[in-house]
């Protein structure tokens, strides 16, 4: 069963058959890879360890605006996922959810089967002639607040992501971080919170300049060179003590909620054991999105190459490149470029 948005097209993929393509990762880039493979009349399975399609967009911030996808001035993550699922499944790709891929085995061609890979998950075994790894940042967990009593307030005012914006209405909020997520949440929450403060340990932000400019025009009180020292409260957050990391001067901030956006700790997990070239926890690919193993491609945030930009928009192009070159690998008679979609009848 596919939870969340789904398209009425029922998959015609035989779960036991060797499919043309296994897409590892059901996030935006993986869904686009499935769509493009469908355009090339390839049979597809989508394997994801989560129980829902959409990756981080669904799991972490469904009500966060996405600004850098072509065609949308801004769009809620959950709405983008709805469109991507409809697009990605329209040709009958088979989602296999709640399945973490653990093992990989290469099977050379013989008299009865073509050259292919066997993927073992915690639930099943899958066979595919090609693989495109679109696993985002891999397995991820939020980077914890570096204070002793953080765990005691988890779910009692402390959050590492925002699932529902309405949960913060009329609340006094402290945001921690200086990246895109922290700045975007500051901008989204400002109209509904009773008051909000953002602290950042430096005077430079790791966010888009326009987003920072917009935040500075909201009523968000920004405290640079500040870090959190401790959280206080009786059974729930009532205040936080922050300090200036240049002078150690402390400030008490009355708040109901602390939203920490210090990034994620990610790991490639079993993928590290697949004899792929890995660089700084990313899969190295060439300009054709090929890994060092024939028939295995990668696209999206999980891969790296010179000049790599970790954007959803970039990942879409990488997925199309991987699928097109993969198609010619298993079908040498196929054209590399199938034509523009607008030319389809």
Number of separate structural domains: 2
Radius of gyration: 22 Å
CATH class of the largest domain: Alpha Beta
User: What would the CATH topology of the largest domain be?
Assistant: FAD/NAD(P)-binding domain
Brief write-up:
The protein has 345 residues and is of the alpha/beta class. It contains six helices and 22 strands. It is elongated, with a radius of gyration of 22 Å.
Can you put this structure into words, describing what you see?
- 19% of the residues lie in helices and 29% in strands.
- It is of the alpha/beta class.
- It folds into two domains: 18-140 and 264-343, FAD/NAD(P)-binding domain, CATH 3.50.50.60; 144-260, FAD/NAD(P)-binding domain (3-Layer(bba) Sandwich), CATH 3.50.50.60.
- The strands form six sheets. Strands 1, 2, 5, 6, 7, 8 and 21 form a seven-stranded mixed β-sheet that branches.
- Strand 11, helix 4 (180-189) and strand 12 (195-200) form a beta-alpha-beta unit.
- Helix 1 (28-39) runs parallel beside helix 3.
- The longest helix is centred in the C-terminal third of the chain and has 19 residues, at 312-330.
- The chain is elongated.
- Mean pLDDT is 91; it is low at 1-8.
Write the layout of secondary structure elements.
Elements: E1 18-24, H1 28-39, E2 44-48, H2 56-59, E3 65-66, E4 75-76, H3 77-89, E5 94-97, E6 101-107, E7 116-121, E8 125-133, E9 139-142, E10 158-159, E11 172-176, H4 180-189, E12 195-200, H5 209-216, E13 221-224, E14 226-232, E15 239-244, E16 250-254, E17 257-260, E18 264-267, E19 278-279, E20 282-284, E21 296-298, E22 303-304, H6 312-330
Parallel strand pairs: 1-2, 1-8, 2-5, 8-21, 10-17, 11-12, 11-17, 12-13, 20-22
Antiparallel strand pairs: 3-4, 6-7, 7-8, 9-18, 14-15, 15-16, 19-20
């Amino acid at each position: 069963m596919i939870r969340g948005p789904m398209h009425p097209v029922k998959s015609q993929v035989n779960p036991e058959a060797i499919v043309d393509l296994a897409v590892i990762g059901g996030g935006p880039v993986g869904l686009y890879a499935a769509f493009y493979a469908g355009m090339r009349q390839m049979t597809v399975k989508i394997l994801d360890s989560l129980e829902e399609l959409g990756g981080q967009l669904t799991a972490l911030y469904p009500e966060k605006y996405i600004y850098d996808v072509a065609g949308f001035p801004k769009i809620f993550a959950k709405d983008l996922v709805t469109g991507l699922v409809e697009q990605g499944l329209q040709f009958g790709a088979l989602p296999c959810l709640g399945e973490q891929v653990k093992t990989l085995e290469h099977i050379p061609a013989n008299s009865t089967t073509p050259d292919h890979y066997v993927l073992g998950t915690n639930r099943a075994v899958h066979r595919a002639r090609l693989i495109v790894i679109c696993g985002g940042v891999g397995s991820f967990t939020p980077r914890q607040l570096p204070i002793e009593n953080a765990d005691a307030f988890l779910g009692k005012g402390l959050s590492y992501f925002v699932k529902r914006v309405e949960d913060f209405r009329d609340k006094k909020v402290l945001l921690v971080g200086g990246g895109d997520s922290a700045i975007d949440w500051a901008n989204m929450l400002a109209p509904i919170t009773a008051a909000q403060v953002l602290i950042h340990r430096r005077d430079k932000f790791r966010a888009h300049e326009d987003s920072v400019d917009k935040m500075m025009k909201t009523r968000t009180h920004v405290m640079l060179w500040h870090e959190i020292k401790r959280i206080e409260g009786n059974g729930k957050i009532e205040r936080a003590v922050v300090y200036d990391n240049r002078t150690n001067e402390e400030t008490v901030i009355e708040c109901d909620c602390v939203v920490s956006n210090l990034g994620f700790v990610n790991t490639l997990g079993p993928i590290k054991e697949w004899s792929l070239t890995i660089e700084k926890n990313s899969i190295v690919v060439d300009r054709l999105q090929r890994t060092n193993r024939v028939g295995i491609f990668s696209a999206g945030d999980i891969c790296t190459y010179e000049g790599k930009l970790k954007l959803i928009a970039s990942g879409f192009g990488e997925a199309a490149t991987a699928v097109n070159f993969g198609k010619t690998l298993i079908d040498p008679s196929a054209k590399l470029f199938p034509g523009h979609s607008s030319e389809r009848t």
